[in-house]
Specification:
Number of helices of chain A: 59
Oligomer: heterodimer
Low-confidence stretches of chain B: 72-78
Shape of chain B: elongated
Shape of chain A: elongated
Radius of gyration of chain B: 16 Å
Order of helices and strands of chain B: HHHH
InterPro entries (chain A): ARM-type_fold (IPR016024), HEAT_URB1 (IPR059018), URB1 (IPR039844), URB1_C (IPR032436), URB1_N (IPR021714)
Protein name (chain A): Ribosome biogenesis protein Urb1
Pfam families (chain A): HEAT_URB1, NopRA1, Npa1
Radius of gyration of chain A: 44 Å
Strand content of chain A: under 5%
Structural class of chain B: mainly alpha
Helix content of chain B: 55-70%
Largest interface: A-B, 51 and 40 residues
Number of helices of chain B: 4
Organism (chain A): Parathielavia hyrcaniae
Keywords (chain B): Nucleus, Ribonucleoprotein, Ribosome biogenesis
Mean pLDDT of chain A: 85
Number of strands of chain B: 0
Distance between the termini of chain A: 105 Å
Strand content of chain B: under 5%
Helix content of chain A: 55-70%
């Protein structure tokens, strides 16, 4: 009804708004088709017209009603429809002509009641007709009538009625919905063709929402609801081209979701399901059409449905939030839905990862020649622009589903991870015990665990150039996980915060490891560029990650009983040793006390739940791995206040473990140590330490009390052997020499476990002790059994018989034992016989025991040799060190390498830099002396002696590199009084105020002298070799290495030490690195060959190798020495003995 | 007769339950504090549980099996 303005007596419009009154139309019951005809016949009387339409409406309502008892009504309707059917030859047949005329008249006279009442009855009639196949032709006739020009105008007029006239707009939309879907969408196409009328004001009508405090009544849907249902109906039946055009109308797409948050549940459900079925999953619909619907603002509005509160889903019914989540998951992560675009993983848009850069240029200039390498630190162009705009609107920390959505998007489009965090700077990880922080932590954990895209680019091969390092590191430790936040989290007094940070670092290190492995892939075209990128990656990771020391402190502060937390913290440290060994080793972590605590807990057996025991074993395994990486691990030295050594306690844990707990890893470690230390023969087929384990287990089963008496004896024997193995080799040969049995003659120390010899030696002492009856009774049970299992393990039975015969006089019940001899044919029941590989190798350590002649030496290419033996220059000049140190605290100066950088400048080629460095070293020394730094005196002394040594000589030339390298490495010793080298370095320093400039310090003291701290010979040797490698850089340095001395040239001394059969592979590798460094110096290889006979040394050492991979290194190094030497000179020197033909 | 072998899903479910039980025991005090924080509403409980149990991802399936199946009780000392 049009607005009517009431006028007052003075003719002016009343200030009050006239109330619009809809007069209810009258109606009558329909009993016959003729009556219906009369009722609907055209009349200019609006009251009569409304009366007829209202009667027809009620008639149709009854037919559509749930009550099935319709009597004659269907027939009446049928008769009526037949009576109004236009003639078959009519060119433009008009169905229901009276009704159409009434509508037209209503429009002409502006009678809104009639304009509303006609679409109401037409919508009902179409709905009714669609239910029966018989009546379809009539329904189609009505639909086609609606498409005629006259009716189109009426529809358009109705649709564009004022916003407040929902009573006209809604029935028209309902009528169109019925028409669009009638007979399977038969007229959807022509309907869309007439879109100028049929879709008139659709976007606006979608904005006419339900007003009021109560929820929208499903029986009286708002214009918006009707408009959406009409659009969905059109989308369902339209062909792809038409849908494309429809969706390209921005106003409609925008209006579709603008008010979705307030829509009633049924409508939201229909909307999401309709869009999903008819847009997202329509394969024929072009990608652009889908993309125009799924823009960032649509997605953001739909994501508001995560907080939809209008529905109350019944049990088993899916909530709107869940439906919206499924919709968004499909829309954002499925490539077929049009939104997700294929990205290139860690390579941003617009760069060419296969840019043709010559290898020589890359080798010379490194990554700096790749213009884009450092370009993406602040901004990253992405292909998935819409998704990148949508992501910041989600709150993954406060909703599980949103977190799942974000993570799934990251997974589908890895390029977005770095972009997301760069553009969301407000995202901070400052620790706080709150739900939000926990949510952040969980979200970040998920992000870090996302896999790295295949070949970084999601392609089948690696591109020629590495991805930008900043992007890789952003994916491993996203920017909110910076050093400060992580350190504060690790050190937080809340254990849970520390635990969460630890877990994130664990997965980050695992991811870093995976990324580094990918950087080192042998298939890379530009190996040097990838290697440099790997180094940069490590550097950038370290700038974001807390230091190893902080991780150690965090581990230290974990309460004793928190085994889950302890496991995670120990795993983190283990990963540091595995992934960043050089940095981890710098932290000087003494694993022994932790190992001790863990062993004590496991030995006490106070863990009630066997699962707790198994979890504690995981911690122990981590610690054992760390111990394996720590050169200073003292396996056979019992800590103060503890009776047994770590090694024996590990054996004890293996024996005492609850049934069902898997001990594989621990046994491997124990066995590895036993093989390395020579406790058991290093030969193929020998099961290592299993004989000892089996005998102990059998004893524990039969005599649980006896085993407790055996442990101290065993510990004593093993420790004695480990401390002086050569003594027991000699004792073994003494035993062979004394023996008269022919079967024993010619045996070597590889035919029996040398630990047995130690037991034989120690037994008399054990027997001589007062009150040793219990021990002897236990040993009387244990030793014969042990020797029996040793025989079963393949050791010489004749020799074991001899040993038993020498043992029995000290054991009770000796006669019977002598008679019985060593037991034969014992079966291993508790310890599965391992494969040869498992007994010989510990985790990640190659210690093959097979004999060389049985294995061909695999060839090693020069690149692999370089990877293995090349050590970066530790004294590389960094002139910025001259100024950087002054702003640092003394702690940072000493602990973080600033001092070392300063010392390294003393070997600079430029006199001015050297002089400047010397002045600064003196200043730094003074600063340290005046500070509160705990080790200030020692560090000061070192620096001042270095300055005194350098003195005026640096005016003439660089300081000898070994001197500078010694000073650099000695700084680490001086800051750690617990270092095993502390006494030696300080003894050296107090000898005099300066050092001889042409003598390399401490070589003889370490290689020949008493280690002072027991069991640290190899640790000290490792330190010495480390500094010697850094100290061998120039021709002049090499001269110092082969200078004549009372004890022979330094290099000769080192080579002699390296022939020690007990030297472990990592130390041998250090010696080889020293030689490799020498080959890099001009004339170095020739000197090595002619002065030290290095070719023969390498050949002889290679011949003694039991591992083919080790032999390959010697072989490859020999080849390098030959290739880099003055071959004519070497050939003449060797009188043709060396001519390179052997390669 | 040996006990039937647990399926991977059973192992994962049992391990997750054990992990959660351990975590709630070790961080009981902190969890109480989080639950009394101002922002603990709506999905917060679900997030907290999910955050705790996501650490199971750090254990390989065989490690989970080792821990879950270590339930036969201590060795008989008699």
């Amino acid at each position: 009804m049009a607005h009517r303005f009431a006028r007052g007596p003075d003719g002016r419009a009343s200030q009050k708004r006239q109330k619009v009154v809809h007069e209810a139309p009258t109606s009558e019951e329909v009993h016959a088709s003729r009556q219906l005809q009369q009722l609907l016949s055209f009349s200019q009387d609006p009251i009569r017209a409304r009366h007829g339409l209202q009667s027809f409406k009620l008639f149709l309502d009854q037919l559509l009603g749930p009550d099935g008892n319709n009597g004659d009504r269907p027939r009446i309707l049928k008769d009526y429809l037949q009576s109004t059917t236009p003639a078959a030859d009519d060119e433009s047949p008009v169905y229901l002509p009276d009704v159409m005329q009434t509508w037209s008249y209503g429009a002409q006279t502006n009678n809104e009641n009639i304009m509303s009442a006609v679409p109401v009855v037409l919508a009902l009639l179409l709905k009714l007709l669609s239910q029966s196949l018989e009546s379809v032709p009539f329904g189609l006739g009505i639909c086609r009538t609606l498409l005629q020009k006259r009716q189109q105008e009426l529809v358009a007029r109705n649709l564009s009625a004022d916003k407040g006239k929902s009573f006209i707009i809604s029935p028209t939309l309902r009528m169109l919905t019925e028409a669009a879907s009638f007979d399977g969408g038969a007229i959807a196409k022509p309907l869309f063709r007439a879109r100028a009328s049929m879709l008139k004001s659709l976007a606006r009508n979608m904005g006419i929402v339900h007003r009021g405090d109560e929820a929208e009544d499903t029986k009286r849907p708002s214009a918006r609801s009707n408009a959406i249902l009409f659009l969905l109906s059109a989308l369902k039946y339209l062909h792809p081209e038409a849908k494309n055009e429809l969706l390209s109308q921005r106003d409609i797409v925008a209006a579709l979701t603008r008010d979705v948050k307030q829509d009633p549940p049924y409508l939201v459900k229909e909307l999401l399901e309709g869009l999903r079925a008819h847009v997202l999953l329509d394969d024929k619909l072009p990608r652009d059409a889908k993309a125009s619907l799924l823009n960032a603002s649509t997605l953001t509005r739909l994501s508001a449905l995560y907080q939809y509160r209008l529905d109350t889903p019944a049990e088993g019914e899916t909530s709107i939030a869940d439906i919206a989540h499924e919709f968004l998951m499909a829309a954002c992560t499925s490539p077929g839905c049009g939104l997700l675009r294929q990205d290139a993983g860690f390579y941003p848009r617009e760069l060419d990862p296969n840019a043709p850069i010559p290898t020589a240029v890359l080798d010379e200039w490194g990554l700096e020649v790749i213009v884009w390498m450092n370009k993406f630190k602040t901004e990253i162009p992405v292909r998935n622009y819409a998704l990148s705009n949508f992501l910041p609107n989600l709150r993954p920390w406060s909703s599980l589903k949103q977190s799942e959505l974000v993570i799934s998007i990251f997974k589908a489009a890895p390029e977005l991870v770095a972009h997301y965090f760069l553009n969301n700077k407000s995202f901070t990880f400052e620790p706080k015990l709150s739900a939000t922080w926990t949510g952040y932590a969980a979200f970040l954990f998920h992000t870090v665990t996302l896999p790295i895209p295949d070949h970084f680019c999601r392609g089948p091969d690696f591109p020629a150039l590495p991805p930008p390092t900043s992007i890789v590191v952003d994916n491993i430790l996203p920017p909110p996980l910076n050093q400060k936040a992580l350190s504060r989290s690790l050190a937080n007094k809340s254990n849970m915060i520390s635990f969460f940070a630890t877990r994130i670092l664990v997965v980050a290190l695992e991811k870093l490891d995976a990324a580094l492995t990918m950087h080192r892939d042998p298939s890379h075209a530009h190996k040097t560029a990838w290697a440099e990128a790997a180094r940069r990656l490590v550097d950038e990771f370290r700038q974001r990650s807390p230091g190893v020391t902080e991780m150690i402190n965090a581990y230290r502060s974990v309460p004793e009983g928190d085994i889950l937390h302890r496991e995670a913290a120990s795993r983190l440290l283990r990963l540091c040793y595995e992934v960043l060994p050089q940095h981890a080793l710098l932290a000087k972590f003494d694993v022994s006390p932790f190992l001790e605590t863990s062993l004590t807990r496991l030995s006490r057996q106070d863990l009630e739940d066997p699962k707790d025991f198994a979890l504690s074993l995981k911690e122990l395994e981590n610690l054992l791995s760390i111990a394996g990486y720590s050169p200073g691990m003292r396996w056979f030295a019992a800590p103060e206040g503890v009776s047994l050594s770590p090694f024996t306690r590990l054996l004890k844990v293996c024996i005492d473990a609850p049934r069902g707990v898997s001990l594989g890893t621990i046994r491997e470690v124990v066995n590895f140590v036993a093989v390395e230390e020579g406790l058991v023969p290093r030969v193929d087929g020998h099961p290592g330490l299993l004989a000892l384990l089996e005998a102990s287990q059998v004893l524990r089963q039969s005599y649980p009390d006896s085993i407790t008496h055996v442990w101290p004896f065993l510990d004593n024997c093993l420790s004695r052997y480990a401390n002086s193995p050569v003594k027991y080799v000699e004792k073994f040969y003494d035993l062979i020499d004394e023996a008269t049995e022919p079967a024993v003659q010619g045996l070597t120390s590889a035919d029996v476990s040398l630990a047995t010899i130690a037991m034989l030696e120690q037994l008399p002492f054990a027997a001589a002790k007062e009150g040793s009856q219990h021990v002897l009774r236990a040993l009387g049970r244990f030793l014969p059994s042990f020797l029996g299992y040793s025989a079963a393990a393949g050791e010489s039975k004749a020799l074991l018989d001899l040993i038993l015969s020498k043992m029995v006089p000290h054991l009770p019940d000796s006669k019977r034992k002598v008679k019985a001899g060593v037991l034969k044919g014992l079966q291993f029941q508790h310890n599965p016989w391992p494969s040869a590989k498992a007994t010989e190798t510990g985790k990640a350590k190659g210690t093959g025991a097979s004999r060389k002649e049985e294995l061909p030496t695999p060839a090693m290419d020069p690149e692999t040799l370089e990877d293995m033996l090349h050590v970066p220059d530790g004294l590389e000049a960094d002139n910025s060190a001259l100024v950087r140190w002054s702003s640092k605290s003394v702690d940072e100066l000493v602990d973080e390498g600033y001092l070392k950088s300063l010392v390294a400048l003393l070997v600079s080629e430029h006199a001015s830099i050297r002089k400047e460095a010397l002045v600064n070293i003196r200043k730094a020394a003074a600063k340290i002396k005046e500070s509160e730094y705990e080790e200030r005196d020692q560090v000061w002394l070192l620096l001042m002696e270095l300055a005194e040594t350098a003195g005026d000589k640096i005016n003439d030339g660089p300081l000898a590199s070994p001197i500078a390298a010694f000073a650099c490495h000695a700084i680490d010793v001086q800051r750690d009084p617990l270092s095993c080298l502390y006494p030696k370095v300080n003894t050296f320093l107090v000898r005099g105020p300066s050092w001889s400039p042409d003598r390399i310090p401490l070589v003889d003291d370490i290689l020949e002298g008493d280690p002072i701290v027991p069991n640290t010979y190899y640790t000290q040797t490792s330190w010495l070799l480390g500094y010697l490698i850094d100290g061998l850089r120039t021709k002049h340095d090499l001269e110092l290495f082969h200078k004549r001395r009372a004890m022979g040239p330094i290099l000769e001394h080192v080579l002699v030490s390296a022939t020690n059969p007990y030297l472990r592979w990592p130390l041998k590798l250090q010696v080889l690195r020293l030689l490799y460094r020498a080959t890099c110096i001009e004339g170095g290889s020739t000197t090595l060959t002619t002065r030290f006979g290095i070719m023969s040394w390498l050949e002889a050492t290679q011949a003694g190798c039991t591992d083919a991979s080790e032999a390959a290194v010697y072989e490859a190094l020999r080849k390098r020495v030959w290739e880099t030497s003055d071959q004519d000179r070497v050939r003449a020197w060797s009188r043709g003995g060396l001519d390179g033909l052997s390669w | 007769m040996p006990p039937p072998q647990l399926s991977d899903q059973q192992v994962a479910a049992e391990f997750t339950s054990y992990y959660l039980q351990r975590a709630t025991k070790e961080f009981a005090e902190d969890l109480d504090k989080v639950r009394s924080a101002d922002d603990f509403k709506n999905d917060a409980l679900q997030i907290l549980v999910s955050a705790l149990q996501q650490g199971t991802a750090m254990f390989f399936p065989e490690e989970q099996r080792r821990i879950v199946t270590a339930a036969a009780g201590p060795v008989d000392k008699s």
